[in-house]
Amino acid sequence: MKARHQTAPPGGRKGQDMTRLAMAAAALALAGCGAPLLLGAVPVAGIATLQQKGPGSAVSDTGLRIAVNAALLSDSEPLFTSLSTEVVEGRVLLAGRVPSRADKVRALAVVWGVDGVNEVIDAISVADGQGAGAYATDWRITSELRSRLIGDAGIRSLNYNIETLDRTIHLMGLARDRSELDRVTRHAARVPGVARVVSHVYLYADPRRGARRTAPVL
């Protein structure tokens, strides 16, 4: 759990992404050797139960996130370090800032080309690099919203992933019902400094879950 009003970690987004890729790759290697796949100190099966999806789906999302990050890194280290990813049942949220539209199109094409990706949600901004102050604000917004969701007994907080870019919150995950999703979006809108809330969340009973969308012409 991140502390409220926590400042951005050393190394910023680049440090986080490099660490995430290294840890995820090591975890996947352990799973391939027959050891239980762990995220932090919690077995994937336990996380999957809390997230209302089967262990196979959780492992699949973890493996797909590794594959997506590896594809971005292999194609372009600057793209990899500029973007962050969230994966839920084959849906990939790609968020961050790149210097040109050509870079954005390239990143989207790389991710669409990864086997197992059902949909790519574009949350990429074309602009110059983000300053330390703006990054710290986005980090604080994400941390505060995460704390609010954890503190609300009516929300299964592990079902939700949060990405904040330029004070816009992007929500990914699965909501048990419309009431829970409304609670989550209300919490998000009430975090100080938030400019906008965008929900990419599916309801648990949504028939679109697991369906592959046709890649757009980029």
Structure characterization notes:
By secondary structure, the chain is of the alpha/beta class. It has 7 helices and 9 strands, in the order αββαααββαβαββαββ. Strands 6, 7, 8 and 9 form a 4-stranded mixed β-sheet that branches. A 3-stranded mixed β-sheet has the order 3-4-5. It has a two-stranded antiparallel sheet with strand order 1-2. β1 (38-39) and β2 (42-43) form a beta hairpin. α2 packs across α3. The radius of gyration is 17 Å and the shape is globular.
Protein topology:
Elements: H1 12-32, E1 38-39, E2 42-43, H2 44-50, H3 55-75, H4 77-82, E3 83-88, E4 91-98, H5 101-112, E5 119-126, H6 132-150, E6 160-165, E7 168-175, H7 178-190, E8 196-199, E9 202-203
Parallel strand pairs: 4-5, 7-8, 7-9
Antiparallel strand pairs: 1-2, 3-4, 6-7
Number of helices: 7
Strand pairing plus helix content: what structural class? alpha/beta
- Global morphology: globular
**Count of strand segments:** 9
Strand content: 15-25%
Concise structural overview:
This protein is an alpha/beta fold and 218 residues long. Helix content is 45%, strand content 21%. It contains seven helices and nine strands, in the order αββαααββαβαββαββ.
Note the main attributes of this structure.
single chain; alpha/beta; globular; 218 residues; 9 strands
